[in-house]
Design a protein that fits this description.
By secondary structure, the protein is α/β, with parallel strands linked by helices. It is 35% helix and 21% strand. The protein contains 13 helices and 14 strands. The protein has helices at 14-28, 52-56, 68-80, 99-106, 109-112, 142-145, 159-164, 166-171, 221-232, 251-261, 276-288, 310-316, 320-331, and strands spanning 10-13, 32-36, 61-63, 84-91, 122-127, 152-154, 176-181, 188-191, 204-207, 212-216, 238-242, 245-247, 264-271, 297-301. The protein has a 7-stranded mixed sheet, with helices on both faces. The chain has a 5-stranded mixed sheet with strand order 9-11-10-13-14, with helices on both faces. α3 (68-80) packs parallel to α4 and α10 crosses α11.
Length: 332
Amino acid sequence: MGATGQPQEQKTTYREAMREALRDALRSDDRVFLMGEDVGRYGGCFGVSLGLLEEFGPERVRDTPLSESAFVGAGIGAALAGMRPIVEIMTVNFSLLALDQILNNAATLLHMSGGQLPVPLVIRMTTGAGRQLAAQHSHSLEGWYAHIPGIRVLAPATIEDARHMLAPALADPDPVLIFEHGSLYNASGELAPSTAPVDLDHAAIRRPGTDISLITYGGSLPKALAAAEELSTEGISAEVIDLRTLRPLDDAAITSSVARTHRVVVIDEAWRTGSLAAEVSARIAERSLYELDAPVQRVCSAEVPIPYARRLEEAALPQTADIVAAAHRAVD
């Protein structure tokens, strides 16, 4: 408590905020349990669930065999039986081993059953590159999942969203996939003592601006904010839009931002071809073409398997300088 008697902001990290969200979910609802590879004794591959096994026991924090198809399928079955499972997949590339379960079961059962079988399942996974984990563990495949009807796709990019997105995700009757960018886990900052859940239906304006819109999500948000700060020193006012929810996209937030700035850069760590950036660009063309004063610019990863060597990896990924250069192409 501060001098006024009001709760004070606390210094925390993205990882700790996500852990507190899990802890709160487990405390609040006996139907909630966490399952995945090494989530128990090891504390999670990225340390998010550290200490939860000791607090809640092996019935609520379950280590699973190394079979994504099996434990995602078990999560679907538990959700059908009335539980509220949170399934952790170590990294997004491993989710491909469970793609049949996600696409053909979790996403379709409500439809195939005529509305009788909702699947209130949350699947968390780490995504993204920038940590020298080479081509096998550096994918950004959230755009693939945003293609699938029947699921909601979230990408928390801030400590606040890491803390408060899980509760409404668990309350959703449909499957929800949460993509946590690996570069964000150590990010630190102040967390306001709010208990309000995040509005999953709307994007967020992280920085207002008037000259150009920088539209992004997840691990690219800090780079977009850094680019906006650099552009401000040159007299260019950049608005930064954090999509937050990748399916369904907040079309209204996108079109209203374009109407304010008339120029757009879309930043997406996925590969350019068939990307979420392509979808956002197409929607802008469909809805806001005559608001544009310049072609939409896209900043995406190079169309190569992500390299291991640090400098090559950095060269392959969107960087702040690339965003600034794209903004100049639109504004100049």
